[in-house]
Amino acid sequence: MQEIVKSVGIDIGTSTTQLVFSRLVVENLAGSYAVPRVSIVQKEVVYRSNIYFTPLLSATEIDAEAVKKIVWEEYKAAGMTPHDLKTGAVIITGETARKQNANQVLEALSDLAGDFVVATAGPDLESVLSARGAGADRISEEERKTVANIDVGGGTSNIALYQKGILKGVSCLDIGGRLIQVKNGKISYIFSKIQALAKKHGIDIQVGQQADIPTLTRVCEFMADQLAQALFLKPQDAEHRGLYTNDGTSIPSEPPVQGVTFSGGVADYIYNPTTEDVFRYGDIGVLLGRAIRSHPAFGQIELYQAAETIRATVVGAGTHTTEVSGSTITYAADRLPIKNVPILKVSEEDEAVLETLSASIINQMPLYRPEGRTEQIAIAFTGRGRTSFADIQMLAEAVIKGAKEAIESPFPLVLVIENDIGKVLGNAIRVKLEHKKDVICIDGIRTLSGDYIDIGEPLANGHVVPVVIKTLIFNS
């Protein structure tokens, strides 16, 4: 039996705010006497909103009422009501995520549909969302190559690196199309880092100056050069380190990048350069896109067409696949249900050695501190090849070592395993933690980084729990 699910994604970014409404066909693909396996068998965007400049009250505050008005107007234009929608996501990204009242805006919008994935996406998580929306992970897997996605927005450029479909690293730079703004033919705003970068190269630009196209083109060429350096396509200069957002770090230098996709508002002008009015949006976005496209370093690697450009993040705003867990699980019944828990996924490569499994968890934990403190997460890995008592004990030790920060948090330790070891692994961890920590360890579930998980109350006399995986709609 098929079920129609309507979904909405709302992305409030540095430059733009937009919505996407989708129609998903969900079907149980299992036989009559088999455990249900519900999957999305068809997906279609039924409405794409206009793209609006994100309304701000000041440099540090979002205009929440104006955002809500935009959202309601687009609901009406799409012929949708909150009652029609069963899933969706509100994501605040880029510089907007750091505005003073970002959480209040999320709360104001979260009642506009069913169980939203409501998250303020920090720059690292945003890199993953936009890359998967652009299809960089799929291209990397299908081509068996190392592919980076650069999501060039208004205030930041988010980078995610995939090798054969596996996420290898993320980073974010303060490079974007609205970091220099133009009004009435004059420069009206310059981001301090870009002004300093220009000055390092002998270009003195000031607010109030005429917006000289050749001069601003040169500045954009230096910005594009920094993106090439971020992919290690050329040596990193003395200025490069200071351009990472929030003093962040670069992607790993190995494996070398073989291909690239671009998403974000500037991407359309990378794939389709234009000679028309370059200041049409009151910024340097068109010039920056042209500079990136013509940079020699990007000509040395394969340029792949992104599945989505300006809508990559919003199209990745959320859908769901409902499953039931395996029947060999451990859980703390009074901690269920839990909803909208982000997945920290350990790759199979990192999982192969217990030391790297622990390190992978530790290294990914900063992705899940959107406001500087640890949130509820679910740690996921396959658990393949570890079935003996000794294997399980060593795996439990490795998980405890890597998940120390999560264990010290007020939330239960949630583990999501593909292999059929949930009960024994969960019990082993509980014993090693002297039963002082609530542990939820489910199996039979496959997830990806960037997914969210809902775990419901137990079914079938407590043998299984229902699971909803919220993943990116156009990731396959």
From TrEMBL:
For this protein, the record's SUPFAM superfamilies field holds: Actin-like ATPase domain (SSF53067)
Q: Domain of life of the organism in this record?
A: Bacteria
Q: Which NCBIfam families match?
A: PRK10719.1-3
Instruction: Name the chain's protein.
Output: Ethanolamine utilization protein EutA
Q: What organism is this sequence from?
A: Butyricicoccus pullicaecorum 1.2
